[in-house]
Design goal:
103 residues; alpha+beta; Ribosomal Protein L30, Chain: A; 24% strand
């Protein structure tokens, strides 16, 4: 909003001037010890996957080493990474979760 010397105001649409927020991929990494069922559960609870999507994504991580679970603005991505780490730690699983900027 701008106010000139006569007191007239000019309102510009902010959406025309704001860049979209930088986005981050949240990535799950494979390991040899975390139970498959635990990973499926995490994908359902933290990443809002259906049981079928969660199973498929878990298997993709298992066979390919890693997979993108979702793409979010920075703070949301960081919160999901932290929740996954806490869930894994609470059950003593070595499950690893990281975030990377979308290329
Ligand atoms: N590789 C694990 C097993 O065989 C399963 C697993 C899947 C672990 C995905 C981590 O992010 C992961 N029990």
């Amino acid at each position: 909003i701008e106010i000139d010397k006569q007191g007239a105001t000019t309102v510009e649409r902010q959406s025309a001037r704001l860049a979209p927020p930088p986005m981050y991929q949240v990535i799950l990494l494979n390991d040899d010890y975390t139970p498959m069922e635990f990973v499926v559960n995490v994908l359902e609870r933290v990443f809002a996957k259906t049981p079928e999507q969660a199973e498929q994504l878990m298997l993709k991580v298992h066979y390919e080493g890693r997979a993108v679970c979702g793409v979010y603005p920075r703070d949301i991505a960081a919160t999901k990474v932290e929740i996954v780490r806490q869930l894994a730690q609470s059950r003593q699983h070595p499950l690893q979760c990281v975030m990377e900027p979308v290329p």
